[in-house]
Design a protein that fits this description.
43% of the residues lie in helices and 21% in strands. By secondary structure, it is of the alpha+beta class. A 4-stranded antiparallel β-sheet has the order 1-2-4-3. A hairpin with a 3-residue loop joins strand 1 and strand 2. The longest helix is centred in the N-terminal third of the chain and has 15 residues. It is globular and about 45 Å long. The termini are far apart.
Length: 162
């Protein structure tokens, strides 16, 4: 992490993410150290709490959380490749020497697992690629996830008022 991260955060155009970035890239590394794999498991837990209904809701969640723009770039029966991009991703990559996206990857893995009903895990590739971060979700179609169904959250479509 660059020593002047807080100063850079304060002067950045994306002040709507200041508090998030302050906690994410300044406080958390001080508490957990350099091994950020715990953030993957935190992301999975957050996804269980959010329990999103579908892929569109996952994409909307990322936008509303200011985690970046999320899109599926390749899809097979048991494998999806996602691209996480946007100004916040670029900002983090530019400001933090080893920016990681374990929290986001864990969130995606668990959401896909909940939605598909099969065990799913992610691999992060190109974390320092300026066009975005590739997150590959591998789903094991031979390993059903026996999670009890619960009410899923669905972002309502915006409707025009007359």
């Amino acid at each position: 992490m660059k020593p002047n991260l807080i100063e850079n955060l304060l002067s950045a155009d994306n002040n709507d993410t200041f508090a998030y970035e302050l906690i994410r890239d300044s406080l958390i590394p001080e508490v957990i150290g350099t091994d950020t794999t715990i953030l993957y498991w935190v992301g999975k837990k957050m996804a269980r709490n959010a329990n999103l209904a579908n892929i569109a809701d996952l994409i909307t969640f990322f936008e509303k959380a200011n985690w970046g723009t999320l899109e599926v770039v390749k899809e097979k029966k048991d494998k999806q490749t996602w691209l996480l991009s946007g100004s916040i991703v670029t900002f983090r990559q530019n400001q933090i020497k080893s920016a990681d996206f374990n929290l986001e990857a864990g969130f995606i893995a668990e959401t896909i697992q909940i939605q598909s009903g099969f065990t799913s895990e992610t691999i992060i590739e190109n974390q320092n690629n300026k066009s975005g971060v590739s997150i590959i979700v591998q789903t094991d179609l031979k390993d059903p996830n026996m999670t009890e169904p619960t009410d899923q959250f669905h972002f309502e479509e915006a409707t025009e008022t007359e």
